[in-house]
Amino acid sequence: MADENVRLRAALRDLVALSTLPAGWIGIEPRTIAAGLADILTGSLGFDFAFVRFLDPSGGVTIDVTGGYASAEFMDWLQAQLSTFDESLREPIAANAVGLDDGPKSLRGVVIPIGFHAHAGLVAVGCERSDFPTQTDRMLLTVAANHAATAFRSANLISEQRRAEEEVRRARDELEMKVLERTAELQRTMAELAHMNRVATAGVLSGSIAHEINQPLSAIVADASAARSWLARTQPDIKEACDALDSIETAGRRAGEIVASLRGMFKKETQARLPTDINKLICSVLAIVRSEVQKHRVELSVQLDASLPDLNGDGVQLQQVILNLVMNAIEAMQSGEPRVLGIRSGIDRANFIRVSIEDTGMGVDPSKMDQIFKPMFTTKERGLGIGLSICQSIIESHNGRIWVAPGSERGSVFQFELPTDTD
Q1: Is residue 50 located within the same domain as residue 113?
Q2: Looking at the structure, do residues 340 and 263 belong to the same domain, yes or no?
Q3: In this structure, is residue 9 part of a structural domain?
């Protein structure tokens, strides 16, 4: 009875020790778990030899770990036992992985599967005791094997999670790179389309541009002729000649301003974001389209708020937006009367400038309001369908917004607003 009590106390002690294994094996690599199990079997539980084989569920390398010493006879017995299992468990045990004892020690053995049908591997134990394996031995080995199976499965899950996270990270990095490349490509395409739009506008305005440049050039010729006449007199009129020369200088500067404005508008490169006076951009556009306004007998109604602050923007791009909207408004009023082009600027709300361009044309079909800024959509017979789309892209790139609404009585009002602190 006393011996039985000792065995029971020892079994309870060993069970308590085994119950602490799962916590110690959390997050541990499978080979470390196998080595720890072998050490416990040969150390804490007092067996002479232990062999642990873990199977990688993904088909990877099989993990073999031994502890203690075994005889060659016992290893032959163990290899024969392995041959009764599935093919994945039949691999021969490496000779250099086992500590052999050449003494007369005779070991009794038992093989315990790890997991259901040994799907995770097995544990083999050898012991010199004549009563090995007892029911208590089998119970302790089964508990240890089950703990190892749980820890091994957790280790595999953690490993799979890490691999999945790494794959997700790589996929995310690749996606981000593709997004950056696609964004850069779209920006290049939009810049090319914007340039095409400016070139197309130049073609439409070629007559007006020629007229605008011809005016100061004609004035220069006339004033030069007048100055020559004043100087060719018997008594040269120096004052009149100087006045004529002043007029030539003024006309020359005017021609230079027109050429500089056009060169900036129709060049392919855009400018850096700099402090920009939106009213000056509006006035420069009106100077360019002056002949178009006169040719189509359009009445101008311009109300610009002189107190507007500058905004940080690309002057070329913003000038293009205003020019597109003004030309669209003029074209919308080719038929019907009256023809009034209203342009206004002002502060719409705190830190935002609003520009509105209103016409008295036929207006935009309400059913097409939500499509008007879409690429390749046009209401013109020969339109490219990129002008308003480019306008929207430019305004949004300046952290602003653009929209269209019906006019107060007829026609349409295109409006955009921009923050004064645009980066």
Answers
A1: yes
A2: no
A3: yes
